[in-house]
Automatic annotation (TrEMBL):
Keywords: Oxidoreductase. It comes from Pantoea coffeiphila. Its EC number is 1.2.1.16. GO terms for molecular function: succinate-semialdehyde dehydrogenase (NAD+) activity. This is Succinate-semialdehyde dehydrogenase (NADP(+)).
Amino acid sequence: MIKLKNSALMRDRCLINGEWISASDGREIEVDNPASGKIIARVPSLTGSEAETAIAAAKAALPGWSRLAAKDRTAILRRWFTLIVENADDLAALMTAEQGKPLAEAKGEALYAASFVEWFAEEAKRVYGETVPAPGTDKRIIVMKQPIGVCAAITPWNFPAAMITRKAAPALAAGCTMIVKPAEQTPLTALALGVLAEQAGIPAGVLQVITGDAKEIGGVLTASDTVRKLSFTGSTEVGRILMAQSAPTIKKLSLELGGNAPFIVFDDADLDAAVEGALASKYRNAGQTCVCSNRIYVQSGVYDAFAEKLVARVAALEVGEGHQPGVTIGPLIDASAVEKVEDHIADALAKGAKLLIGGQRHALGATFYQPTVLAQATQQMKIAREETFGPVAPLFRFETEEEVIAMANDTEFGLAAYFYTENVRRTWRVAEALEYGMVGHNSGLISNEVAPFGGVKQSGLGREGSHHGIDEYLEIKYLCSVIA
Ligand code: ADP
C-alpha cells in the first residue's frame, strides 16, 4: 500500500463527467512499482465507447466553461494550484511508487506541475486580441481569440504530473475542456490530479481522466470531429501515428516528441559548472527525460579532466528505491528500458568505446542500472543516433567549434541542447547555430513554466508553458466590420 496523508487521492476509477467509474466490462490495468515489480494498484481499462462518452461530456461542458469570465476560470484554476501544492507530498509518494523517481525529485515535479497551473491561471486573464488599422475608413478590423473547443491530451510516464498540468492548465485557462489519457504505467498521479481538480471546483466534464487501451482510446480521440485539438508528449514513433490519425479531421496538434540532446563543453568552459550541469541534465529521472543530454561532446583540451571529474561525481550517485533517503537514482521504468540501455552500451563497446564507470545492471536487481560513463564515443554508435533514455553518458572528443556544431545538428531530433563556454562571442554563435527548440548556456536544467518548451525537426510541434503555451488552445478570429 502507498501511504498517503490524504487517502482520497488514491483512486482506482476514472473521472468521466464528474463520476468516478470502472470499465463497463470490469477490465483493469495493473500498475506496478518499477523498483519491486509488485502490483500496487489496478485502474480501469476503458475502451473506445467510454472515450466516446467522455468526448460527449466534454462537448456538453464546453459552453458553460468557455463562457465563464476569465477571472472566474482564474479563481478555479488558482484553487487547483493551491491544492496541488498542499498535496505535493502525497503526489510525490504516488509518483515514486508508480514511476520510481526519488522522492525529492518527485516532490520537485509536483511543485513544477503546480507552477503550470498557477502560471496559466494568471494567463487566462491575458488572452488579448488586437485592433488593426483598416485599409479603408469604412471598416474596423478586430482580432479576437477564442477557445478551440474540446481538447485531448495523451501523456507519458516519465513526468506523471507535470505533463498533465502543462497541457490541461492552458487548455482550461483558454476556456477549453480536456480529456486526459495518462500513460498506463502512471495513472495514479493523473487520477489524483483529477480528485484535486474536482475539489477545486472544476465542473463535471471540463477535465476528465481516462485510463485504458492506448491504441483504442487514441483511435477514438483522433478520429473524433468533436475533439479539435490533441496535445501529445511521448515517442516520435507514436507522435507520427497520432499525426496521421489526426489528418482526416485536420486536428490542431501539439507534439512533444523524442530528443537526442547534445551537451557541449568547450575548452574555455567553467569545468566544475559543466560537470554539475552534465550530471543534472544526464542523470535526472535516471536519464529518462526527453531533454536529458544524450551525447556529451568535450573539446580535447579539457576532455580528460572533464571525464575524471564526471566519473568522480557519478561514483557518488546513490542508486536505490526512491522512498529511501539519500537515493538520487531510482529504477528504470521497465525491463525493455534496461534492455535498450544494455543494447546501446554493448553496441558502443563493440565499436570502440571505453567504459569509465558502471556498465552493468545494479546489484539491487529489478530494473536498477548502474550510472555509466563511456569514453571514446563516436557518431557511428547507436548511442549517438538514438535516444538512450537511461543513465548512460557517452563522451565524444572534438577539436573545433565548427566540427561540434555539425555533429550536434546531425540528428533528426531538435529538442534541447546545452553548451558551456565563458566566451560571449562564441555564446551567440553557438546558440544561433544549434538547430534546437531549447538551448541551455552554462545550464543543464532549462525547464520552467515561464519559458516556451518545445522542439524543432522531428522533436515536435508547438510550445508548452510561457505566454505562448495558451495560444495552442486558442483560435484566432478576425472580424471585419463595415460601419459606413
Ligand atoms: P514511451 O515509449 O515513452 O512509453 P509512448 O509514445 O509509447 O512513449 O507513450 C506515450 C503515451 O502515448 C502513453 O500515454 C501511451 O499510452 C500512449 N500511446 C502509445 N501508443 C499509442 C497509440 N498507438 N495511440 C495512442 N496513444 C498511444
